[in-house]
Amino acid sequence: MFNRKKKIKIKIDGLECNLLINGMNEFRNMLLAEGLPTEDVDELLLKLIDIYEK
């Protein structure tokens, strides 16, 4: 979608991170149900989970 890579930093607490993970997972499930690719969402989910576990 976007070729330009720009890093953005935001500060969120554990609850907000958990909400992001759950929302992204629901979005991923919707994409799967429609047969659409999930690679970008998967990559973001893995980053969020990694941050949340630290």
Outline the structure in words.
- The structure is a single chain.
- With 54 residues, the chain is an all-alpha fold.
- The protein has one domain (14-53).
- The chain is built from two helices and no strands.
- It has helices at 14-33, 39-53.
Unreliable stretches (pLDDT < 50, length at least 5) are: none
Shape: globular
How far do the termini sit from each other? 29 Å
Helix content: 55-70%
Could you tell me the radius of gyration in angstroms? 12 Å
What is the string of helix and strand elements?
A: HH
Q: What proportion of the residues form beta strands (DSSP E)? A: under 5%
Number of strands: 0
| Sheet/helix structural class | mainly alpha
Count of helical stretches: 2
Query: How would you characterize the largest beta sheet?
Result: none
Q: Give the domain tally.
A: 1
Query: Taking all residues together, what is the mean pLDDT?
Result: 89
